[in-house]
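In this notation, each integer encodes one residue's backbone shape. One such record reads:

___
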Amino acid sequence: MDEAVLLLRARDGDQHAFAELVGAHRNQVWAVCLNICTNPHDAEDALQNTLVAAWQNLHKFRGEARFSTWIHRIAANNALSIVRRRKANTQLTDFTDPDQPVELVDDDGPAFDDRVALRDAVHDALAQLSDEFREAVVLREFGDLTYADIAAQQGVPVQTVKSRLNRARTQLAEIMKDRIGAP
């Protein structure tokens, strides 16, 4: 069904239309929450807060941006809010959590423990970035937003987004180099 029709139906209180509307963006919204929070439990809270806020504020969506941009903004704001509240308790992803099974696949790629170490390093590196840099990187790399969409979300010019992404990537490379000894 067309996104505009789903939006109209959802605004009229149709929960199924809302579920279909957000369902089209669920993976990217989850990725935004997870990569900003860096821990699945906080990401779940951010995702739940995002869905509740989107449902309760659907009447405020003016359609000046795409629906995906609007919901990504809500997700990033909720995730950043949780990170700020729990900054002192930021944890890395717990790969021993039975609720998050990790599949072992023998694919001639990097060994499982190397993949876990790399994933931990990336999450740790993201957590070390400033909120603005982390949000920009996550929205670009995991949310697949355009520079213009990120600029609209962060309330800054596109050139500032490009600068933030460049600086964030440079910082990530340095952190990763120090963490895993990459060249």
Summary: The mean pLDDT is 82. Residues 11 and 58 are 6 Å apart (CA to CA). DSSP finds nine helices and no strands in the chain.
